[in-house]
């Protein structure tokens, strides 16, 4: 197990290096930069000083070497080009803490409700509970999140006036964004759990257990649920990293100053350092989550650990 984890950590570091280099060089291959627009009306000498301050007057490979040195030795992504003096690392840490609140609640709520609905749909296949669950799943997948967000705002903020339309800082500001973001998670897990449960319930060892007189409740509790839920753990990797990076659409609609909102803003501003830092942060979270999921797999299923 230790050898397996060490190997995965090495692969993770190599992957992160490739992602960092690809992101850095791709961003610098795009014509223009934020300073060319911001300093267009300044004297030539002042513009040169700006470029020298941020190291943009050096060759790209030298800029990359400096960036990697600062990242490895100081854990720093540098400063924002669009907002001088603002640390990229501090911005990511502060805004990801905002994104994780509604995102984390949405994931927990969606996971619990989705698994319960998936179990109900599998046990009541081709009956009215199954049809209701699948209808909810279709709605959660097909209806765009901005439509759900607007609908919730109209009903609960405009008509009922029980929740604020936008804002941040109060517990009431979290409810609608979390519920809206949970719809996709509910739909995904309801479908996956139902499909996996039906597949497991048709296996020979399940039929053998039932033939031996084991009650249906114990068969489902001891055998079906554990094996059916195992493939669903794979989905958690991307979703766990997603709660830190936030949802731009939801954060924009509800006025949440999360990382997703600032990420899109940095793209519009062509803020190289912010884009690169946020991309590396998101990629690192995703890869780390995948490592944790793989370890969880081996702990939940001894057959995987043996292989």
TrEMBL record:
Protein's cellular compartments: Cell membrane
InterPro entries found in the cross-reference section: BPD_transp_1_N, MetI-like, MetI-like_sf
Topology with respect to the bilayer: Multi-pass membrane protein
Keywords of the record: Cell membrane, Membrane, Transmembrane, Transmembrane helix, Transport
GO biological process: transmembrane transport
PROSITE patterns, sorted: ABC_TM1 (PS50928)
Residues in ABC transmembrane type-1 domain copies: 96-297
CDD domains xrefs: TM_PBP2 (cd06261)
Keyword Membrane tagged: yes
Transmembrane segments: 9-30, 103-123, 132-154, 174-193, 228-254, 274-300
GO CC, alphabetical: plasma membrane
Family statement: Belongs to the binding-protein-dependent transport system permease family.
Name used for this protein in its record: ABC transporter permease
Organism from which the protein derives: Sellimonas intestinalis
Species lineage: Bacteria, Bacillati, Bacillota, Clostridia, Lachnospirales
């Amino acid at each position: 197990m230790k050898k397996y984890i060490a190997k995965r950590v090495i692969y993770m570091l190599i992957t992160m290096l490739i992602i960092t280099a690809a992101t850095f060089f791709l961003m610098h291959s795009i014509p223009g930069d934020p300073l060319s627009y911001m300093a267009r009306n300044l004297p030539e000498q002042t513009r040169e000083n700006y470029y020298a301050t941020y190291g943009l007057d050096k060759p790209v490979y030298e800029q990359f070497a400096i960036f990697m040195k600062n990242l490895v030795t100081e854990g720093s992504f540098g400063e924002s080009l669009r907002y001088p003096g603002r640390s990229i690392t501090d911005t990511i840490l502060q805004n990801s803490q905002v994104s994780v609140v509604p995102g984390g609640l949405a994931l927990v709520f969606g996971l619990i409700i989705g698994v319960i609905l998936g179990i109900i749909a599998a046990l009541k296949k081709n009956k009215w509970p199954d049809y209701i669950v699948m209808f909810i799943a279709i709605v959660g997948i097909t209806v765009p999140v901005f439509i759900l967000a607007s609908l919730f705002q109209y009903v609960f903020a405009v008509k009922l006036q029980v929740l604020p339309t936008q804002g941040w800082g109060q517990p009431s500001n979290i409810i609608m964004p979390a519920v809206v973001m949970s719809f996709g998670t509910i739909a995904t897990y309801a479908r996956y759990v139902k499909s996996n449960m039906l597949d497991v319930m048709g296996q020979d060892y399940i039929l053998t257990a039932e033939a031996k007189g084991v009650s249906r409740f114990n068969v489902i509790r001891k055998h079906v649920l554990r094996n059916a839920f195992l493939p669903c753990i794979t989905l958690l990797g991307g979703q766990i990293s997603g709660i830190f990076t936030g949802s731009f659409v939801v954060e924009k609609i509800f006025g949440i100053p999360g990382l997703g909102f600032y990420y899109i803003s940095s793209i519009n501003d062509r803020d190289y350092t912010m884009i690169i830092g946020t991309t590396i942060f998101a990629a690192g979270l995703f890869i780390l989550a995948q490592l944790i999921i793989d370890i969880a797999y081996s702990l939940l299923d001894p057959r995987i650990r043996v292989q």
